[in-house]
Design brief:
This protein is an alpha/beta fold. The chain has helices spanning 4-12, 29-39, 79-92, 106-114; strands at residues 16-20, 43-47, 53-54, 57-58, 72-75, 96-99, 118-120. The chain has a single domain (4-127), classed as NAD(P)-binding Rossmann-like Domain (Rossmann fold). Helix 3 (79-92) runs parallel beside helix 4 (106-114). The longest helix has 14 residues, at 79-92.
């Protein structure tokens, strides 16, 4: 079984990362995560069905509408939405999903793992990424 450290390192080795729940509100974690990844040099893709732009970046309505090259996502939404996101991630061929604290859903984690997707939860991305 792989360790959390290995999964974190694999996730952070991706250069393109979607941020599900990217918010236009600078006080929300979805916005903070997006800006932190962007300032650290990642190519970030905001996912927000209610926005066309987030922090000046084109926003996408869901994971299935992203460019095919994006295979990693940070999830910053309520657990019941995370379950829908899990289905989108499987359909879109994602390989890595990181649930921020509070976004976890046991059903989502289980379905992602069953599909062979590397899942991180229980630890915050903000403490792992350096700009």
């Amino acid at each position: 079984m792989d360790s959390i450290r290995n999964r974190v390192n694999e996730f952070l080795s991706q250069r393109e990362i979607a941020v599900v729940g990217a918010s236009r509100n600078p006080a929300k974690y979805g916005n903070i995560v997006l800006k932190k990844l962007h300032s650290a040099g990642y190519l970030v893709y905001p996912v927000n069905p209610g926005a066309s732009l987030v922090e000046g970046l084109k926003a996408y309505p869901d994971l299935t509408s992203l460019p095919e090259s994006v295979k990693a996502a940070v999830v910053v939404v309520p657990p019941e939405i995370s379950e829908k996101i899990a289905g989108q991630a499987i359909a879109a061929g994602f390989r890595y999903i990181w649930f921020q604290p509070g976004a976890e859903s046991e059903a989502a984690i289980s379905s992602l793992k069953s599909a062979g997707i590397s899942v991180i939860h229980g630890t915050c991305l903000l403490v792992r990424v350096s700009p």
